[in-house]
Amino acid sequence: MIEIENVRKSFGSLEVLKGIDLTVNKGEVLTIIGGSGSGKSTLLTCINGLEPINSGRIVVDGTEVHAKSTDLNKLRRKLGIVFQQWNAFPHLTVLENVMLAPRKVLGLSKAEAEAIAVKQLTHVGLADKLGVYPSRLSGGQQQRMAIARALAMSPDYMLFDEVTSALDPQLVGEVLDTLRMLASEGMTMICVTHEMKFAREVSDRVAFFSKGVMAEIGVPQQIFEAPRNPETAAFVKLTQA
Amino acid sequence: MFSYTFQWKQAFARLPVMLEGAVVTIEIALLSMLIGIALAVLLTGFRLSGNRVLSGIAATWVEIARNTPALFQIYMAHFGLGSFGLHLSPYTSLLLGITFNNAGYLAENFRGALKAIPDTQTRAARSLGMTPVRAFGHVVLPQMLRIAFLPMTNQMVWAILMTSLGITVGMNTDLYGVTQDLNALTFRTFELFALAAVIFYLITKTVQIGARLVAARLFRY
Q1: In terms of DSSP H, where are the helices of chain B?
Q2: DSSP strand E in A96-233: where?
Q3: B65 neighbors B105 (Cβ within 8 angstroms)
Q4: Among residues A129, A226, B153, B160, which one has the fewest Cβ atoms lying within 10 Å of its Cβ?
């Protein structure tokens, strides 16, 4: 379970999260929608401790992320994250990209790490690209590789930060299909996305962020068909036009 | 008007001695590179440390190394330190001077190479649970080496050629120094120095071709 309690976060004088309260249960798929600068991506990087917070707390399975005593490297094994820019390691092959963390962080043998990597890459449909360098892959393939790389650590939670935003339109589908597959397998996921159709289809709950505040949260049908907050209504109307 | 008679045999007779000099030249260049790379890594760390004193030391080093003649740097290592009572042998001062130069140039190359690697690479590595050291070692460093590899090769070539400046501090066991001594003995100036130039050329060309082969093996992406 991920518990977010009254989290505030500023970059300099700009407050991007203004007291967020949110709980994500095991097995749940939560999508976060909202305009640019609403703080949705920042929240994800705070959850895995890549960004510090100014106040409040984030607790993952009983461990407070930003407590001084927390071993973030250990905690991050539970929390896979995939970014908008897929960040493939260009000097490693697809297989090596996925094997790196299991070997160096989990301390697995080469054979064990390779078995896991092959399994995850097959899972995301890249079984025929193992020995290829990322520069030879399309954006969609690189993004799926990044997903496999995160999955190879056997995380309990997956955080997706606008993973299709940097892709050519024709490549969005293959990445969303991968996310749908994960959701159907019961992975706990928080997806920040601009893909409204996807959000509606896959989510257990949808949260709408606006200017650093979680304006509304609810089941997809309610958010998209009967939004209570006028800002949500305006946003939904705009994105579905 | 042209009364010089070539006597190549005289020069070729000295080839074994010159080749021994070439070995010393290669040795100094290699040592100066190894120590230079280590120092450059340290200087790069200093520059990025955020500590004013450390980054000041590194910046000064880089400025002097890159903006003064290499001859001056070797001179200072010998006569400069000598006037403070630290008397180094020609070999040591030449090595010290070239190493100083290498470290300065390479530190700047390394810094540029580091800047070329986006922060998001480190972020991605850290998000997989890697410690900062692991993220640097497995993700940043290999990419940095690729970018810095060609400048490092150039610096190695430059280091080989810089050994010729050793004669100004009394160095006479390296290729250039040996040739100079032979010239004083035989006055076959053109033949000897032409031969030395060919040897220099062959060494540097070998370094360049070797580096290209190594790069092709190491950097396949």
Answers
A1: 8-13, 15-48, 52-67, 70-75, 81-82, 90-115, 119-127, 132-135, 141-162, 175-186, 189-218
A2: 157-161, 188-192, 205-210, 213-218
A3: yes
A4: A226
Per-residue pLDDT of chain B (221 residues; tens, 9 = 90+): 677 888 888 888 899 999 999 999 999 999 999 999 999 999 998 998 889 999 999 999 999 999 999 999 999 999 999 999 999 999 999 999 999 999 999 999 999 999 999 999 999 999 999 999 999 999 999 999 999 999 999 999 999 999 999 999 999 999 999 999 999 998 889 999 999 999 999 999 999 999 999 999 888 88
First CA to last CA across chain B, in angstroms?
Answer: 59
Residue A117's φ and ψ, nearest 5 degrees, are: -65, -45
What is residue B174's DSSP assignment? S
Q: Which DSSP string corresponds to A77-101?
A: TTEEEE-SS----TTS-HHHHHHHH
Residue A191: CB partners within 8 Å, gap ≥ 6? Answer: A29, A30, A31, A32, A160, A163, A179, A198, A199, A202, A203
Three-class DSSP category at A241? coil
Flag if A83 and B123 touch (Cβ within 8 Å): yes
Mutate to test the interface with B, among A47, A91, A163 (most CBs of B within 10 A): A91
Any B CB within 8 A of A85 CB: yes
Provide the whole-model pTM: 0.83
Nearest to A101 among B128, B142, B221 (CB): B128
Distance separating alpha carbons of residues B27 and B30, to the nearest angstrom: 5
Could you tell me the residue ranges of all domains in chain B? 17-218
Distance CA B207, CA B203 (A): 6
Taking CA B134 as the corner, what is the angle to CA B128 and CA B135, rounded to the nearest 5 degrees? 60
How far apart CA B189 and CA B125 sit, in angstroms, is 60
User: Would you say the C-alpha torsion A183, A187, A190, A192 has a positive or negative sign?
Assistant: negative
Domain B17-218 class in CATH? mainly alpha
